[in-house]
Design goal:
single chain, 360 residues, alpha/beta, Rossmann fold, Adenine-specific Methyltransferase, domain 2, seven-stranded mixed sheet, three-stranded antiparallel sheet, 11 helices, 16% strand
């Protein structure tokens, strides 16, 4: 049997390559097979009827996960956060906001499970937001870029990979310094994230990404099926590069908002140099608490997460005092509690809510 690529099928059927990949993943093209990380389609296949679902409705056939590894990501405590989703979500609560979106574990869970009218995400990490935007708007081009990088990188020896990584890191920082927003920057962001040490995003005083290469034998650099699924989920999502306070105009009484700021360090050595050049200190934590209380007065449902200072200092009541008018739950998570990872295991983290009536 002769096969054609998704690109060839898109040209033959006059639809986007992204849409072809989605139809393949939905098992709506007979004989389509995923070989490696690309779809191959029988040349005899016919274009299926396009009965795509409404935006933001659950698409069970398109499982989606964060497209980056993210230090402090919420996948491991997602079940605990899910229990705090407000009971009216998808019904009377029709909007969702995530102003510190990061890897988006909660975002993609929400988009997979609920039909919503409006969704807003933001982050101060400009390059992360550029990447989200390209996944939403230019997924096919981004996949092509990543596939090229993957083909070049994986066959290399360890020394060759190291040279390649640091050359790409330098190229990324040059593009970053010039405020580029093209698809190359997004592809390099994902490549560096998938191959750097522990998925960290750290910048130096000049704003340069400076995380060393990690040790991965066969990293997934181009996860085409997931990127296509993520792209589908992000259609009509408002993506903003900016401070969390810019969400003020979006968030109202019909909104569920999740805040996952940089965690307060558990010790002087617990945080890496900086996610952003200006950091996020106790003054910033207090400003965020005031903002959350402001949203509470508007009637918005808010969940916020943070570290629990009592892991290392039982008398540290920083967050208990800061959020004394809200509900604070302590949950168990597996984290390293210092920079060299000498102490790992189950520790307590905080989930803060401003409402009653969670789903569980």
């Amino acid at each position: 049997m002769d096969f054609m690529t998704a690109k060839e099928a898109s040209e033959q059927w006059s639809i986007s390559q992204r849409r072809v990949a989605v139809l393949c993943s939905e098992n709506r093209i007979d004989g389509a097979e995923m070989i490696g990380k690309m779809w191959l389609i029988p040349k005899t296949a016919t274009k299926p009827d396009d009965a795509r679902s409404l935006r933001f409705q659950p698409l069970e056939c398109l499982p989606v996960k964060p497209f980056v590894k993210w230090a402090g990501g919420k996948a491991q405590i997602l079940e605990e956060i899910r229990r705090l989703y407000p009971s009216g979500l998808g019904e009377t609560i029709t909007k969702y906001a995530e102003p510190f979106v990061g890897g988006g574990a909660v975002l993609f869970d929400i988009l997979s499970k609920y039909q919503l009218e409006e969704v807003y995400i933001s982050d101060i990490n400009r390059e992360l937001i550029v990447t989200y935007t390209h996944i939403r708007d230019n997924a096919s081009e981004l996949v092509d870029e990543l596939r090229t990088i993957e083909r070049e990188y994986l066959p290399f020896s360890e020394d060759e990979r190291k040279t390649y990584y640091y050359n790409k890191r330098e190229r990324y920082n040059n593009l970053k310094a010039k405020s580029h927003t093209g698809v190359e920057l997004a592809a390099l962001f994902i490549f560096l994230n998938r191959t750097c040490f522990n998925g960290l995003y750290r910048v130096n005083s000049k704003g340069g990404f400076n995380v060393p290469m990690g040790s991965y034998k066969n990293p997934t650099i181009c996860d085409e099926s997931n990127l296509i699924a993520v792209s589908e989920r992000l259609q009509n999502v408002q993506i903003v590069c900016g401070d969390y306070r810019e969400s003020r105009k979006f968030i109202d009484k019909r909104t569920f908002a999740y805040f996952d700021p940089p965690y307060r360090p558990l010790s002087d050595t617990a945080s890496f140099t900086s996610y952003a050049r200006d950091g996020f200190d106790d003054k910033n934590q207090m400003e965020l608490a005031r903002f959350i209380k402001e949203l509470s007065k508007k009637g918005a449902c808010v969940v916020a997460s943070n570290s629990d200072p009592k892991n290392t200092n039982e008398s540290d009541n920083f967050f208990d005092d800061l959020y004394n008018s809200l509900s604070i739950a302590r949950i168990s998570a597996s984290r390293a509690i210092n920079s060299v990872g000498e102490k790992r295991g189950r520790i307590s983290e905080l989930l803060i809510t401003n409402y009653e009536g969670a789903r569980a």
